[in-house]
């Protein structure tokens, strides 16, 4: 991946390599989930001598699928991470962000223009790698993700007052901004692994529900999280004028909150008042419940994958389920 993001134009490579450098690469949750999904879908002993043949052990055979399949799945995981970082570079310009991953945001380091172009460059590199997979369905899935990221961002930016307090609008935006990338990439991993439509749909369901669960827990933590653990100030969503799930549930108990939502908490004292109403409502508990429901759906998708004789695949399935639980139980 580091090779894929370099350029012979010095200013461009400085900018595009910024979040791929050691210590700046973040948790890489997406590639981790995707490679676990690739392994979780394998089915025991490969017999074809042409593919090298292999014997399974309990522990991580890097060669559990034919090497070319595994390599293509790894390319896909890298593409997902490049798209993710590109969207963050653009997001930080839009949000005028000062920090990202504990570092100065790239827009502060190199300015908005170069930060945007670095994001474009990463998308271009991701596109070249995507095309090299020679799979038009996979290209279509990942292109759709780009459309969703942009649509979600614009939905958030331009929502009419009445949409701002709509849970449907919020969940759709959340799917576009957060869940679509991991959902469609998981499906692409399945297709590259040669799995059929039914299994690919289960991979998609896992990714979608993991993404939604993760984001709903993020919404909760923005209210009840610890600033020092999260590494960012709490109530950030309210301060940015965004009503997330806890607020939208609270509106159902305190209809007067919808005025504040519709003016994006812009009047003085709005953020404080909204915070208080959310705290005295069931908003946080109901959002946690919603996150838990999506966590359960993610786990159910893994449990419905076709039986596998591979111990290692079963190991990876347990890891994917554990990851879904952690997404909703985490405090940072
Ligand atoms: C983080 O949101 C932002 C996203 C998940 C997607 C942003 C998408 C765009 C800017 C559209 C451009 C897309 C591409 C593919 C270049 P946030 O601001 O809510 O979260 P944060 O706390 O991480 O900043
Ligand atoms: Mg942002
Ligand atoms: Mg943003």
TrEMBL record:
Query: What are the BP-aspect GO terms?
Result: isoprenoid biosynthetic process; ubiquinone biosynthetic process
**Coiled-coil residue spans:** none
Task: Enumerate the PROSITE patterns for this protein.
Answer: POLYPRENYL_SYNTHASE_1 (PS00723)
Q: Which GO terms describe its cellular component?
A: chloroplast; mitochondrion; transferase complex
What are its cofactors? Mg(2+)
Q: Does the keyword Glycosyltransferase apply?
A: no
List the GO molecular function terms: dimethylallyltranstransferase activity; metal ion binding
Could you list this entry's UniProt keywords, alphabetically sorted.
Isoprene biosynthesis, Magnesium, Metal-binding, Transferase
A Pfam short name = polyprenyl_synt
InterPro entries, per database record: Isoprenoid_synthase_dom_sf, Polyprenyl_synt, Polyprenyl_synt_CS
Q: Which family does it belong to?
A: Belongs to the FPP/GGPP synthase family.
**What is the name listed in the Swiss-Prot or TrEMBL entry for this protein?**
Uncharacterized protein
